[in-house]
Amino acid sequence: MSDQPFRLGWEEWVSLSDLGLPALKAKVDTGARTSALHAFDIEPFGPKHKPRVRFAVHPVPGRDEPVIPCSAEIIDRREVTSSNGETELRYVIGTTISVGGRSWPIEITLTDRYTMAYRMLLGRQALPEDIVVAPSESFCQPELDYQVYHSARVREAQPQRALRIAVLSREPNNYSTTRLVSEGEKRGHVVEVIDTTRCYMALNALAPEVHYDGRRLPRYDAVIPRIGASITPYGTAVIRQFETIGTYCVNGSEGITASRDKLHAHQILARHRIGMPTTAFANSPKDTGNLIGLVGTAPLIVKLLESTQGKGVVLAETKKAAESVISAFRGLRANFLVQDFVKEAAGEDIRCFVVGSKVVAAMRRTAAPGDFRSNLHQGGTAETVRITKDERETAIRAAKAFRLNMAGVDLLRASDGPKVLEVNSSPGLEGIEKSSRKNVAEIIMSEVEKKVRPAPARRRTAKS
After folding, report:
1. Has this prediction a pTM greater than 0.90?
2. Domains in the chain, start-ordered, CATH in brackets?
3. Which NCBIfam families match (predicted)?
4. pLDDT tens sequence across 37-73
């Protein structure tokens, strides 16, 4: 074992791996009491009892790329006076520094050092007593290289930063909402429930904003929409505003709008050649007979375009009954469609829960005795089910057709293959989690993390 003291020069290469910064050139200044790290877009977030701060770093002096997003717990806020006499109130975080194979914990203040030659200042408080600083020497420890930021392997190994996620929901105590909040917080993220109808928007070309309860909402890494059918127009307008700002939305406004309009939804399924029950739509009362004829013989399903959770869906067992239901709906000036009744489904359907490009869980829903609707809200029951390859592929294709990253795709098992009944853009989690015994909320949060993780910076090539 060497008796030589651990030496540092006045400049050294250091690593802050906990922050995802594997290589920084730091100035070692024993004349400075505190340490400082270059940071911008500094924003506190999280609960008051355990506040966090997120920020971004340009690790390479003189360059705007790469940009490394970071987050950490706040230890303190401290007034720091710089060498030019200016005093600034800074956030203080704790992390681990590594130099030449040796690591130790330090406290760092966050400040904008963009114009400085060194992205980090290492002050005397951060130096253990047994370290010797040689002010006339440089790089006493092994040197690193900024090219490490262009390594895909290093990028993949970066720590997952804490995300700020908004769940758009009018029901904060709803099972699905509370599960998403719980799983997000369990993974170290801050998840806020925002009442969609209390959002309002500032529309302008340079700085579009979303406001809530008299204040501008902060920058969210992701938004998980849980938009009720009754507020679809306003809810999708709020989502469009987040999309305009550049926030990642798990489900986009176009997909939600299309999935809520039953006629539009069936047209999208037809365009993508996805199997569904034969469906017809007409506006004129004179076309009732032809409308029924296009679908086939009774029994038939007559369904309101705005129906949800099985409400507004009627089974007409005879042609005469179908004509009566159609006449009644027209009397109410309601928009509806007529659909073939798949007898072999026998009051059962399959709910496939799609996240990303995978079916992550599935359940079979069975109608209550005397009912044909298998919706759990109508008294149906659910149990886990093994789906076929064809059913899995159909569900994934249906979700992709609507450009939805999270969807509940309802299928009927017909004699000629699976038929898509509906694509739900705000599927509930309670039935699917309890029947499949899978942690679907955790899978959703994992997908959000993948989507908002920054892409590796491109290596710049020298111009010839």
Report:
1. no
2. 6-156 (2.40.70.10), 164-259 (3.40.50.20), 278-341 (3.30.1490.20)
3. PRK10446.1, rimK_fam
4. 999 988 888 777 888 888 889 999 988 888 888 889 9
